[in-house]
Amino acid sequence: MVEKYKPISPKYPHILHGGDYNPDQWLETPEIIDEDIRLMKKAHVNVVSLGIFAWSKLEPEEGKFDFSWLDNIMDKLAKNGIYVILATPSGARPIWLAKKYPEVLRVDDERQRQLYGGRHNHCLTSPIYREKVRIINTKLAERYKDHPALIAWHISNEYSGECHCPLCQEAFRQFLKNKYGTLEKLNHEWWTSFWSHSITDWSQIESPSKKGEFNLHGLKLDWKRFITHQTVDFFKNEIGPIRRITPNIPVTTNLMGLCPEYDQWEMAKVEDIVSWDNYPEWHNDYQKTWETAAATAFSHDLNRSLKGGRPFMMMESAPGNINWRNINKLQRPGIIELQSMQAVAHGSDTVQYFQWRKGRGGFEKFHGAVVGHSGSENTRIFSEVSKVGEDLEKLDAVVGTTVKPEVAVVFDYQNLWAIEDARISNCESMNYTKTCIEHYTPFWKKGVPVDVINEMADLSGYKLVIAPMAYMLREGFAERIDKFVKGGGTFVTTYLSGFVNDNDLCWLGGFPGPLRKILGIWDEEQDALYPSDKNSIVLNEGNELGFKGSFDIKDMCDIIHAEKAQVLAIYKSDFYKGKPALTVNNYGKGHAYYIAARTGTDFLDKFYSSIIEKFGIKKTIDSELPEGVSAEYRTDGENDFVFIMNFTEETKTVKITDQYKNMLDGNPESETIQIPAYGFKLLQRNAK
Ligand code: GLA
Ligand code: ZN
Q1: How do strand 348-353 and strand 312-317 relate by DSSP bridges?
Q2: Which residue in 600, 582, 599, 602 sits closest to 591, CA to CA?
Q3: Residue 442 is inside which H or E element, if any?
Q4: In this structure, which topology does domain 407-614 adopt according to CATH?
Q5: Distance from C-alpha of 314 to C-alpha of 349, rounded to nearest angstrom
């Protein structure tokens, strides 16, 4: 049974629509603030994120607070029916704080303390910074705890980066003491006898640096885990007073898509709601628009999966353009609403933009905004945003609904960190993230819902689990896969899987280590292919997948022995000509597939189409979707809300077989629907 979740706030159980609002940049012109409110209402904005970078306006001098301007704005917003996601300001600190307490400034890996400037650059450990953050957060929570506008907390902003100061070094050593207990154990797990790096005193341990320790992979992996731990710990410090004073107001911190700076799964455990900032590079010259859409969908699905299907928030997205890439192309008409509906389709209960109004100065003055420097509401962007707001008002029934996919793709940050250090076969083209997206895309194309999980996830409930390049097998992962396949599940993995354990020590006794038995293969050697090297895999006649042909391979491939597995395809040339390249092992009640070489998407499309058919995996709609059209759904158990979206530059035709109602105009939808370029249909049907 599919669970329906509570809305973000009971105060306003609707899809939230709004964005980052920086009135602190406009305090000298109060008339602009009044105008903003008029325009927000016109654009159907019902929420703003406030005060994200406002620390120097809230505490202009140490211990001297000024909340009057914020009181005024919060009151005005409340009076006008606009809710507030109130930020804690730790993402950027005032100058006075850095000057008086230099320990709050971050130290880089070359042990250089940074000067004041920028943002997102505080020490993660500094007790002074933590204390200052706690003080201002306490004041904010106490002051606004009963404010009618407050519906959620936006903690800091896009936590990222690392600090190598002495305080962080000491905290790192403590983290390691807790993890390993003894130096003997640590030396073993880090394999420090390599190049004579044995550690004889805890104080000798230093964070990784290109100018220092950079070759002990176990140390580097633990440093990443420490950064995750310290970031989450910093977050816990921030939310301490907030949870105490406002226990019923949810907290979130905006994540950055697939950014591997820290393990977002650990943050998701602590926050109440997941939120993330979505900036696809639409209309680029290296992908089709729908490929950008598929990659974006992958991120949305990850964010929904972070809390087991709970709706998330798209905390930021660009209205029109961004400004931080070198080429900042305008979003073509229709994209703002299409990317907004895509977020909702995958489980977002909000559509929020960065930013409401363009500032006059500074780095982001030309970043897309709902209101530009003209101040006019008669703009393309303003009317596109208003249309989004109008349409979202018709989607109340979608709030809190989710989807329970039968398919999961494993994308694991810790595995990614390990792969980046792997120094095996083709180190130039590891492309772990890209590969995971390539294994996800065949499902997106067919409208099959997918969860994006990590290696620690519970696998019960899935029919198909795909773990591309599962190089590092984290604790218990192989056992969970074993149980999953024995119980009847289908598992797919690839080349470069099952090489190291949780601490980056190679499995002994033959790769893919503990997956060997499940897959029924032994991976003996790993080859790298230069771009000019040519080889392919050839499907065996009469294989169980039901398709034939030869498919080019690239970048890397493994030379394997089918011990128990059945061979479905073989290599075409080179000294491993005729050896297995694709296998399946019947294991318990289930099946375990192994793809030994990196292929193109031509093979993946065919392979997964066959798997979808063979194992009866459910699609959002029965008919085939034309290229570039995606179909997703959310359900409350009684009704399915189906989003069909056209991410191409042409009109597309889609056939539907069930009885549908158009959610925007209430009319029934006929069997053949036309969707214009960058258009979409929001449909409702009885739950299937
Ligand atoms: C990030 C930040 C915002 C803003 C946008 C610009 O996501 O969180 O403050 O800088 O980028 O795209
Ligand atoms: Zn530090």
Answers
A1: parallel
A2: 582
A3: helix 432-446
A4: Rossmann fold (3.40.50)
A5: 8
Burial level of 428, CB count in 10 A (0-12/13-18/19+)?
A: exposed
CA distances from 291 to 5, 195, 198, 227, 628 (A): 30, 45, 47, 32, 8
Residues having CB closer than 6 A to ligand 1 are 157-158, 277, 279, 316, 322, 324, 354, 364, 367
pLDDT single digits (tens) 121-144: 999 999 999 999 999 999 999 999
Assess if CATH 3.20.20.80 describes domain 16-162+233-398: yes
- How much distance in Å is there from the Cα of 122 to the middle of ligand 2? 8
pLDDT in tens, 475-532: 999 999 999 999 999 999 999 999 999 999 999 999 999 999 999 999 999 999 999 9
Atom number in ligand 1 closest to CA 363 = 10
Domain 629-686 CATH class label? mainly beta
Q: Is 673 helix (H, G, I), strand (E, B) or coil?
A: strand
Position 3 confidence tier, pLDDT thresholds 50, 70, 90: confident
φ, ψ for residue 388 (rounded to 5)? -55, -50
pTM: 0.98
> Position of tokens 């001297």?
64
Longest dimension (CA), the chain: 79
Among 316, 331, 365, say which to mutate for ligand 1: greatest number of ligand atoms within 8 Å of CB. Answer: 316
For residues 351-372, average pLDDT: 98
Q: How far is the CA of 102 from the centre of ligand 2 (A)?
A: 11
> 147-203: per-residue pLDDT in tens?
999 999 999 999 999 999 999 999 999 999 999 999 999 999 999 999 999 999 999
User: Residue 660 has which token pair?
Assistant: 């549908």
Q: For 280-300, what is each residue's pLDDT tens digit?
A: 999 999 999 999 999 999 999
pLDDT at 1 over 70: no
Determine if residue 649 is left, alpha or beta; phi over 0 gives left, psi from -120 to 50 gives alpha, anything else beta. Answer: alpha
- For the chain, the C-alpha Rg in angstroms (whole number) is 26
Pick from 39, 626, 631, 645: which is nearest to 334 by CA? 645
Using CA positions, which residue lies closest to atom 7 of ligand 1? 277
Domain ranges across the chain: 16-162+233-398, 407-614, 629-686
Section 204-212 average pLDDT: 97
